[in-house]
Write a structure and sequence with these properties.
49% helix, 11% strand, alpha/beta
Length: 186
């Protein structure tokens, strides 16, 4: 009997694959494989992806949240879809972008177009982000990051006290800053 097998992946330690896993189970997946692994990690080192692929049989459907979970590049995604189609395995995304069941021989063409558009979109986002950073640098805008915990006046006082020979601990008490902040200023 054909089964739905899910695969979830997140790429950073701060992300949680729990939401993807829940969505896959809600979609009817009997088995759900999930992992936290960098986008740059080769597919052969993605143990849970390999386990999910090994579990698939003819007539089964591999369900992923988004198409990019199947590979790092357009070529990898298309190749994987082609290989799965040749095995008689269908692929469906939870975002509704693709469902190869019923597409027949046109599935790789449709998927190729979609992944190509996804790569273009990623590149546009990257370019916009870099342009925004350059604009903020040029105009003195906020670049984000950790905020200073001290004012310019406090920094000047710290330097003055240190020139006068005060110890770091004495300076922290006089200026009401942490030892780390005083050390960063100096």
């Amino acid at each position: 009997m054909a089964q739905l097998i899910g695969y979830a992946r997140v790429s950073t330690q701060r992300q949680d694959e729990g939401a993807q896993v829940e969505a896959l189970r809600a979609a009817g997946c009997e088995l759900v494989f999930h992992e936290r692994v960098s986008t740059r990690t080769p597919d052969t080192k993605r143990e849970q992806l390999q386990a999910a692929l090994a579990e698939l049989r003819k007539g089964d459907t591999l369900v992923v949240s988004k198409l990019d979970r199947l590979g790092r590049t357009q070529l990898e995604v298309i190749t994987r879809l082609h290989d799965l189609q040749n095995q008689g395995v269908h692929v469906r995304t939870l975002d509704g972008l693709i469902n190869t069941e019923g597409l027949g021989k046109f599935a790789p063409v449709v998927v190729g177009m979609l992944t190509g558009l996804a790569e273009v979109e990623r590149e546009l986002i990257r370019e916009r982000t870099l342009e925004s950073i350059e604009h903020r640098r040029a105009t003195g805008g906020d670049l984000g990051g950790r905020r200073r915990s001290y004012t310019k006046e406090q920094a000047e006082l710290v330097r003055k006290l240190r020139e006068e020979g005060d110890s770091l601990r004495t300076i922290t008490r006089k200026v009401n800053l942490s030892l780390g902040a005083v050390q960063r200023i100096l």
